[in-house]
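Translate sequence into structure tokens.
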Amino acid sequence: MSKIRTRFAPSPTGRMHVGNLRTALYAYLIAKHEGGDFLLRIEDTDQERFVEGAIEIIYRTLEKTGLLHDEGPDKDKGCGPYVQSERQAKGIYLEYAKKLVEKGEAYYCFCDKERLATLSRTVAGKEINVYDKHCLSLTKEEVEEKLANNVPYVIRQNNPMEGTTTFSDEIYGDITVDNSELDDMILIKSDGYPTYNFANVVDDHLMGITHVVRGNEYLSSSPKYNRLYEAFGWEVPTYVHCPLITDESHHKLSKRCGHSSYEDLIEQGFLTEAVVNFVALLGWSPTGNQEIFSLEELIGEFDYHHMSKSPAVFDYTKLKWMNGEYIKAMDFDAFYEKALPYLKQVITKDLDLKKIGEMVKTRIEVFPDIVNHIDFFETLPEYDTAMYIHKKMKTTEASSLEVLEELLPILEKLEDYSNDSLYGALLQYVEKKGCKNGYAMWPVRTAVSGKQMTPAGATEIMEIIGKEESLARIRKGIEKLKDVISQ
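Result follows.
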């Protein structure tokens, strides 16, 4: 068996959509699973859609996600150029289109827009424009005369009107279409550029691509591709069509949904490794129950025969869960570096940010979550005294007031405000009073944080905000409770 060669062939039209990232990832995994080559080719034949800076985005995204190409515009291994506009400038596509014309598998078409507009017809309730092979009947002399007079032309594929074409896809199986549906698609446009469909076939063949990985929106064009391969007498590659990706309401994941591109997700505080892991599972299932995979593990595990036909739902909640698992597993220094901008966004006081970082590391799913977990360190929020009531801890507003008033002098005397020292002092108080730990800890934590949920316990919070601030907050809690109880 020859070496597997796959390619990722994006168009430089902006940020990389999750669907494109998945195509790149699957193409990469199929090649690497078998020790093959992964190529990058830039499809810029649609000059109108070209976006400045988009080629840099493609390189940057592949580099950050670890999908490193073996060949491409920056790594010519003899199949270059790897940019379609450069290949077009060398005349590659026109040369191959002319070979098909010589074989009778393609023909020059000189029809103008007005004539083409008259060819629309309704099939099964849908209006379609099917070319009527009008220019196929031109004699060789007529064609040469028009070319000599620079009459604008396109080159069309000459598809049969009768019979059927069958192609086989690794995921969807054999698909047969009536040739009457195939239409004579344009291979070379009037501007001399090839159509996407034609350029792909020529390039895939010349670059020795064995497995073509793409979205299933190309399923319907595949018979036309096969006819081109057959017309040239080339071997048809293995097709792997990936299922559609939908949002939670089962609509196609659109660019407008806010989390449809790789860079959107990174800006929302997701880790690259988590995004890659999540995207790998959009349409492919591993054999076991494992869900967390490094890129290396994916290479070992990825068998494209386990891909699904049915649409894959982009489950944002699951991605967040997965990202949280990656954050928990991160080395602290790497985590702290990413967390620091979010910590500094909230905290301007001179507090121990590393300790605060340690508290939130296991409690967040994406980095921006940090902000709501730690805002109380900076300033005590306004809170309702009903928070002091806790059934399980058996605390009431009255019991909380009593505890805080009894603890205040003890905490005022205490010099050492380390977590251990504070915890020791509170335990001593609990033993003396003969109550459960929570009975005292709950009111203190409520007073010093003003929050229902905190990333740490009472004494850890007090260690960070320090003696003065801790006492000020406890006194404020006492005042609040007195006001409510005296009403």
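Note: Residues 458-486 form the longest helix (29 residues).
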